Amino acid sequence: MNSVVLDIRHFVVFMSSLSLCGCGYMVGAPFDPEIRTINVPVFKSDSQRRGFEIELTEAVQKEIQSRSHFRLAKGPNADTRLLGEIKSIRKDVLGETTFDDPRELQLTLTVDVTWEDMRNRRILAQRRIPVDSDLVTLQSHSSFAPEIGHSMATAKQAAIKQLARQIVDMMEMQW
User: Fold this and answer.
1) Residue 111 has pLDDT above 80, yes or no
2) Per-residue pLDDT averaged across 108-118, rounded?
3) Which terminus of the chain has a lower count of CB atoms within 10 Å, N or C?
4) How many domains in the chain?
5) How far apart are the C-alpha atoms of 117 and 125, rounded to whole Å?
6) The domain containing residue 165 runs over which residues?
7) Is residue 15 situated within a structural domain?
8) Is residue 1 situated within a structural domain?
């Protein structure tokens, strides 16, 4: 009986030491607790396709509210500011019918995003399209097939939601 109690104690000590070592997990929210408020003005866009900038801004704001402790604030009253610009909105044909009608299409949104601390003007996170490279860090794709009932509207919603998640992921603290 004594050896069973001793083995259980060894097991408890062993498990406790493992938890102290850390296995890449973090306790608590993955966002900086010193930041309380964020201003997210409407994203900029030079595209002829209207409405994307407003829908993306709203999706980012909702994602911030649902996943972080940050409160949305207006203008200079916020601790931080998230600026975004839609750089491109592309709709590409992936496949056609024998009569050259689009069978499957892909919507691609590309944005530049800068998250700035308004208290000390420090850049907290930034994702920009490199000028001399095809590498893009914040981009979302959504495929749709009109033949089976998909539409540009559903593809737009999916691409915007995916991009909003990526933007809020960017705001998480680095390990």
Assistant:
1) yes
2) 91
3) N
4) 1
5) 10
6) 31-170
7) no
8) no
Confidence (pTM): 0.74
Note whether residue 22 is domain-resident: no
**With 70 as the cut, is the pLDDT of residue 17 above it?**
no
DSSP per-residue string spanning the chain: -HHHHHHHHHHHHHHHHHHHH--S--SS-SS-TT--EEE-PPPEE--SSTTHHHHHHHHHHHHHHHHSSPEE--GGGSSEEEEEEEEEEEEEEEEE-TTS-EEEEEEEEEEEEEEEETTTTEEEEEE---TT-S--SSEEEEEE-GGGT--HHHHHHHHHHHHHHHHHHHTSPP-
* Tokens (6 digits) for 146: 């009109």
Q: pLDDT tens-digit profile of 51-61?
A: 899 999 999 99
Give the pLDDT mean for 28-44. Answer: 87
18-32 in b/e form (b: 16+ CB < 10 A) is eeeeeeeeeeeeebb
